[in-house]
Design a protein that fits this description.
This protein is α/β, with parallel strands linked by helices and 253 residues long. The structure holds 3-methylbut-3-enyl trihydrogen diphosphate (2 copies) and magnesium ion.
Length: 253
Amino acid sequence: MTVKEPIVLKDLPKDLDSNRLPKHIAVIMDGNGRWAKRRGRPRIMGHQRGVDTLKDLLRCCRDWGISALTAYAFSTENWGRPLEEVDFLMTLFERVLRRELQEMMAENVKIRFVGNLDVLSPSLQSEIFRAMADTENNTGVQFTVATNYGGRQEIVEGCRAIAQQVQQGLLKLEDINESIFEGYLYTKGIPDPDLLIRTSGEMRISNFLLWQLAYAEIYVTPTLWPDFDRHCLHKALLDYQQRERRFGKVGKT
Ligand code: IPE
Ligand code: IPE
Ligand code: MG
């Protein structure tokens, strides 16, 4: 007897319009700690399960034709957590990267890390740079991981770099505009997200992509991150497709 694999929502659900999907989804993966707590388990269990959620979401983007996914993995503020949790997360990132690189290559994923990477441990940095270099020419989903990322820090760093260019006479003050400025952000070359999803019900941005989210549609779900599966993404996309993105102009109705 052959056992049938329960492939859930492998293809784009019929009630979604393939022409109106977001090209780029950003996710604030929140609620891992609460997920674990509800089960009487340590918070780190939630982080571990959260990795599986992210892996399937990345696959789902490929299956459904969404070309870019950005995930908030660690904020500049998350250093304020207990040392054991921070250590666990850093080790988890390193372990997952090492374990998944081959599969990401096979699936043609192009991975990029954004954030202040210089202060991460040398071993994590080397996994990060290896993964970015190995997948650089891949043409599948553009997967961006925000690690030690802070939106304010990104903007300040960008300003500093621009000021330096002006000081050295390489850039004219009057030439600075929005598109030049974007070239100084960590996300240079990545189009802005169309949809921001935050799990666990919190209605805030928590210093994520402050510049890039200017016109993103925001979707908040009470579902905790480890439980955010393809059905939840389906719901988020249905909601997104109901929205009228006006970008400051006058609407259709
Ligand atoms: C998000 O889950 C993961 C990270 C911030 C690394 P949390 O760890 O914030 O989970 P809650 O919000 O405490 O439930
Ligand atoms: C945001 O979640 C950061 C990440 C998901 C990596 P937090 O749990 O740190 O955010 P706050 O503290 O609730 O704003
Ligand atoms: Mg949280």
